[in-house]
Amino acid sequence: MNPFNFRRVSESDTAISAIGGPGYAKFLAGGTNLVDLMKNGVERPERLVDINRLPLAKIEALPDGGLRLGALARNSDTANHPLVRQHYPLLSRAILSGASPQLRNLATNGGNLLQRTRCWYFMDAGSPQCNKRAPGSGCGALEGLNRYHAIFGASEKCIATHPSDMCVALAALDAMIRVRGPKGERTIPIADFHRLPGDTPQTDTDLGKDELILSIDLPKSPFAAHSHYLKVRDRASYEFALVSVAAAMDIQDGRIHSARIVLGGVAHKPWRCEESEKMLIGNRVDAAFFEDAGEIAVRNAKPYQHNAFKVGLTRLAVTKALSIAGGLA
Amino acid sequence: MKDNNPSPNECSESSDQRIRAIDDSRINPNLTRRGFVATVGVLTGGAYLSKPLRGRGATLVEAGHETSTGAVSLNLKINGQPRSLAIDPRVTLLDLLREHLDLTGTKKGCDHGQCGACTVLANGRRINSCLSLAVVHDGDQIVTVEGLTNGNELHPVQAAFIEHDGFQCGYCTSGQICSAVALLAEQKRGDASVVTEDLSSTDPLELTNDEIRERMSGNICRCGAYPGIVAAVQDAHQKSGRTKA
């Protein structure tokens, strides 16, 4: 691990001023991803700002019926919070699908948003090609081993996937990310928070390098009664998704009033299936519609040499997640 | 290092200074095998360690000092014992325990958060000590497998692992046991897992073997002693219920 300057801070403003200035600096929270990347030599920050003492760990109800999840609330505490379990069970289940109890006890909500891809060409600092790690070096996965890689929204520069389960549920729940920088606060919709790789895959998110995530705000949700997070992976637990689906529906009198279908493990960011959602609206809860939704979801899929199986898997996973959410399975 | 001619700056500290910078509390007049290995480890790691410590290796950082380019102050309790240290910020909690405090019950498996052998309890919560820098644990209470026993009396989970053959080679066992101790507390508190059907109820749910398997999934056993591990956790759970009643 490279040497770095270490600083503990206890106030958000101090943290923001500490992250600015010369040299490459990173906030350190749970560290489950950052410390790992530093051990691999993928991340080599010159300064670490320990933000674990900032007062950002609360989970609290908002006046409009929504819920504020502090950026430093641990993933385990978030998944098990009574208000999350009662009103946003989709989020609980997504978080509990990821990593292990030990990792969820360390990992924070803000850190989960900022997870880096587990693409092996990125994770291996000795691998010569990775535009995300070393811009301009090429993409090792494009013509290489790409079984885990994207089938949506990729570019010639990068076909990596976003590894988070939590973010897939957040995208289905229309979360807003509240951040603060030297110029003040702003709120970023989850759909705009993560980027597609395009020509600059080294930039994962819209977050400025001197901005601090304060909280994830969830609006009041109509989906608590009919939602499901389905994760398909190579082993039963403690593994990243090949494909995951956050399915949520607002069902009134047997008809689908609104719907959210978001995919994980298939793109550089949580991948929303708006065409499938639109098709469902106004229809009855019926297995045939859920099959159609799966078909529509993969219409524009673009697989690579080793991940063509993800297309059929995604189609079936969407149908199954909707069926479970809708009470048919 | 033998072929290198390190610059005067890089190896300017004496070995004594460097060890003191890393752990002032380490007072061991007898050179043990582990002590010798740890000392040699520190010395041979000198080329890597020396940069942030350069020129100030022997300067212990005052408690409460916020910023440091070298050793960082760290006060914590380990198995009930207060420790006051000054340590290179790159040292993980796992390496602090094993290499600097001789608490070698906690094991290093993958060192990347993928196996769970390094599981310890921080403020009662199970964590991977390999992915946690020691310096973020200022003020924390750490319990390792060495801290679970009550004198010579084994913790009920330790006794259950022996009774049910919850191991073969034993390398993952201290992590499995720390993990299981936390699992039982989480279950009592009403925590859910991904295999919990109804997430909306926060009452303690039935700890089925499927629940145990999912909740222990962060601890890999290469010997495949899983049937014994599940039986041991289930037995410890049943017995703790009886004790409570």
Attribute tags:
heterodimer, A: 329 residues, alpha+beta, five-stranded antiparallel sheet, four-stranded antiparallel sheet, 13 helices, 29% helix, 20% strand, B: 245 residues, DNA polymerase, domain 1, 2 domains, five-stranded mixed sheet, 8 helices, 36% helix, 11% strand, disordered N terminus
Describe this entry's structure for a reader.
In chain A, 29% of the residues lie in helices and 20% in strands. By secondary structure, chain A is α+β, with helices and mostly antiparallel strands. In chain A, the strands form three sheets. A five-stranded antiparallel sheet of chain A has the order 4-5-8-6-7. A four-stranded antiparallel sheet of chain A has the order 9-10-11-12, sandwiched between helices. In chain A, strands 1-3-2 form a three-stranded parallel sheet, with helices on one face. In chain A, helix 5 runs antiparallel to helix 9, helix 11 (274-280) packs antiparallel against helix 12 (287-297) and helix 12 (287-297) runs antiparallel to helix 13. Chain B has eight helices and six strands, in the order αααβββαβββαααα. Chain B has a five-stranded mixed sheet. The longest helix of chain B has 19 residues, at 226-244. Chain B is globular and about 50 Å long. Chain B starts with 14 loop residues before the first helix and ends with a helix. Residues 1-68 of chain B have low confidence and may be disordered. The chains are: A alpha+beta (329), B alpha+beta (245). Chain A binds chain B through residues 1, 3-9, 28, 30-32, 35-36, 39, 48, 50, 52, 76, 79-80, 82, 85-86, 89, 92-93, 96-97, 99-103, 105-106, 236-238, and chain B through 51-52, 66-69, 72, 89-90, 92, 111-113, 116, 119, 125-128, 131-133, 135-136, 138, 179, 182-183, 186, 190-194, 196, 199-200, 202, 213-215, 217-220. Strand 1 (5-8) of chain A pairs antiparallel with strand 1 of chain B.
